[in-house]
Predict the structure of Peptide transporter ATP-binding protein.
Amino acid sequence: MTLMQLKNVSVIFEDREGILRKKKFYALKDISLNINEDDLITVIGESGAGKTTLGRIIVGLQKPTKGNVIYKGYDIWKEKRKIYSTYRREVQLIPQDPYSTLPFNKTVEEILSAPILRWEKLSKNELKERMIRLLQLVKLVPPEEFLTKYPHQLSGGQKQRLNIARSLAVNPKLVVADEPVTMVDASLRIGILNTLAEIKNKLGLSMVFITHDIPIARYFYHLINRGNTIVMFAGRIVEEGDLEEILSEPLHPYTKDLIKITPSIDNLHREEEVKINYSRVEKGCPYRLRCPFAMPICSQNEPSLEQYTHKVACYLYGKKQ
């Protein structure tokens, strides 16, 4: 069953050029995506690809310039009265940065209890039991010892586990994990990914897993062993399909380049995001200035996402549009 749909979603921002001139560009362009119950959507792309903007659209932190965000059959921006409170509770975000997203002056107990009490009326015993279960779920044990701690008393990995627990506090249906291990020490990443996969499988959550790191994406995908993958560039989906099929038979030139610059598909300890330097183009394929296969048609019209062995937006495959 479809939980959320994005229909032709675009987000347009403005860049200031000089004192007076402003130039518009697409942070997202014509994004259409279905998220089903108990689904895994993996989003791969380098810096500037639009991954975080997509995540913000899904959790309602960014309003689309164009298009529709549909949750359980309702447009979250046009039919707020009917769905917005349910949507705000059931769609949650695991942020990238575990250091700046937790209030320094509140204990773990206060951090976890705040979202719960916003939506539910529980007795003190029921509330404590809920928080203990959450801490056990994210492997912060013994939970009683963590409840009275402040964020500065936790390691980076423990902070991120607390962020995960906080996102689960209100029993969400869909969780967006935005680069959830990027700012965590490399030695702790596998453990957090394992915990995240266990939680997804145990609770039957739908999850959007955002990463710039192909080895991380591949490792997490195999923990779940199902789902759909999209590759993003310049705010567009350029390739979509099964992750292993995309990695073994990449179609889009950008995906091929992305795989080439990955140090090792089996390396989970990549420290920094490799940034592909690209120029924004106003017409045609956004990757054409870097593409070794660029044709005249690429500078005239932007290719749409079409089915080949899997979906790809490239004139090398299928009809010339």
The first helix runs from residue 51 to 59.
